[in-house]
Design brief:
By secondary structure, the chain is of the alpha/beta class. It is built from 9 helices and 9 strands. α5 packs across α6 and α7 packs across α8.
């Protein structure tokens, strides 16, 4: 019998029928980066490449039971929590991960992409803030979402104000906060990593034209994979950004809506290289 060689990552999140985001995107990214993904579905999306129309929540007891069964059977190297969907599921996930404080937790709550449910959405945000963020190793959030999480409700207008809001999240117990879409040149996208000491690293990447679904999920899943492979957080964030940029650059239009990142861009590139080599040998 062959021993396990791939790090295992347990991800909690939504099932996306398109495969652009959620659990499906996580599993593809994990696999592309040498990890094996285990999954617990928290809700099921109804949608296509253009939009998310509705969600169907999974009972929180089912979420808890599935996670416990997996964790009793297999050792995991990282947790990832994406869109959860209900306060009850947030509560059971928080309880589960609290039993494994040594395992890194990557939190990407997918706030802006989910349908707005009014006060229920705000109550869910409060539960995430109080129960999950204090246990988080790396949290991924956009600059637009940051002030909402920090409860300051500011526009992402300056680095100084962004740093203040980031520190509010860090003070909740989050070890690292990775903010995407931070101020930079118009032709670039800026991302900034914070910890309790302030800015750890700032990166700028060329802006890829087009409207994408699943870029953020790819990025947070890649961070989880890099941590599971033993990298420290700043290095994991750097490697994950490079992977995501390549996946977005190679994005495919699968339907009439948004472009979908190609997490297996490297396999297609290798296939083309082999084909060119074979053609050269034949000539």
């Amino acid at each position: 019998m062959q021993n396990q060689t791939s790090p295992l990552i347990l991800t909690f999140g939504v099932a996306d029928p398109v495969g652009a985001a959620g659990i499906q995107a996580d599993l593809a990214t994990f696999s592309a980066m040498g990890c094996h993904g285990l999954s617990v579905i928290t809700s099921i999306l109804i949608g296509d490449t253009a939009r998310i129309e509705d969600t169907q929540q999974i009972d929180a007891d089912w979420v808890a039971d599935q996670a416990r069964v997996l964790l009793e059977d297999m050792p995991v190297a990282a947790f990832k929590v994406g869109a959860v969907g209900s306060i009850e599921s947030v509560s059971v996930i928080a309880e589960i991960v609290s039993d494994y404080p040594e395992i890194p937790l990557i939190l990407d709550p997918f706030l802006s992409a989910m349908p707005d449910q009014g006060q229920d959405s705000e109550d869910l945000l409060t539960a995430i803030r109080e129960l999950l963020i204090p246990q988080t190793t790396v949290m991924l959030v956009s600059a637009v979402e940051l002030s909402r999480l920090a409860e300051t409700w500011r526009e992402p207008s300056s680095d100084d104000m962004m740093s203040v809001d980031a520190m509010r999240i860090i003070e909740l117990g989050c070890e690292y906060l990775f903010v995407t879409g931070t101020p930079t040149a118009a032709a670039e996208i800026g991302n900034t990593l914070f910890n309790e000491s302030g800015v750890v690293r700032q990166d700028s990447w060329p802006r890829v034209s087009g409207s994408f679904s699943g870029a953020g999920t790819t990025l947070s899943a890649a961070i989880a994979a890099m941590l599971a492979n033993g990298l420290d957080v700043p290095e994991a964030v750097s490697e994950a950004q490079e992977f995501t940029l390549a996946a977005v650059t190679a994005a495919q239009r699968l339907g009439m809506g948004k472009l979908i990142p190609d997490r297996y861009f490297w396999a297609r590139e290798e296939g083309l290289e082999r084909r060119d080599e074979d053609a050269g040998d034949a000539s």
